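Hi F.,

I've been meaning to write this up properly since the lab meeting, where we talked about keeping a consistent format for the predictions we share between groups. The idea is simple: the sequence comes first, exactly as it goes in, then the structure tokens exactly as they come out, then a line or two of notes. No screenshots and no reformatting. I'm using this chain as the first example so we have something concrete to point to.
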Amino acid sequence: MSSLNIKPIEYEQAKNFTNQDYQISLKIDGTLIYFIDGKLISPRCERTERFKHIAKILTDNNFNNCVGEMFVQGGNVFDVSKRENWNKAHFYIFDLIDNSKTFKERQEILKQKVKEINNPFIEELIIFDDFEQGYNYVKKYNQEGLCIRNENNWFKWKLLQNTKIEIVAHEIGKEKGTFILSNGNRVSGTSKELVTQVLGIKNRGNKAIAEISYPFITEAGHFFQPRITDIIEVEN
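Output, unedited:
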């Protein structure tokens, strides 16, 4: 079972999308799950026993093979993995698995099937008229982001937080290595060029300040999926 081919895009790219050419829907922060022939399967292994209430609802209602995000309301991807939350999980279905039908046809069938089930654990896809409407919803309710999709393309935009923090060391790896930040967090070296830039700043005796984007901070105090967007040199 493979992951989906979803391309990340930035705000400037995403802001002009409307539903005339693309479906714009809410992106949920959870775990990717396929429902195939009565089984719930992640890209790594079967999860039917973990979320057996979801499997039972879909099976009892003869639901089509589909794919969606398993999530805990008010939580993030880590919360849905915790054993105490398994029976609280909701399934946010964003597509059917049926190559004989077009994207539009699948979405129409999906919408009808979810309404017929009418179960609070099976979430209806939240769709917006345009990116701005979706953006305002994500900001207001502190959601993860948006999916922008049509028959041929699939993009994701995430609402990220930003911070500036000093790089105190570089840990050598096979290629890019890892930067150690002043708060103890670690982030990928990103590229050989970026590593060279940071080491050059260090060699001049100055501070290398990383501008970092990330979705949220974990309970352990770590940046989740941090990404360096810029490096600033500050004289010591």
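Notes:
Residues 103-117 form the longest helix (15 residues).
The two ends are 51 Å apart (CA to CA).

If this format works for you, I'll send the rest the same way.

G.
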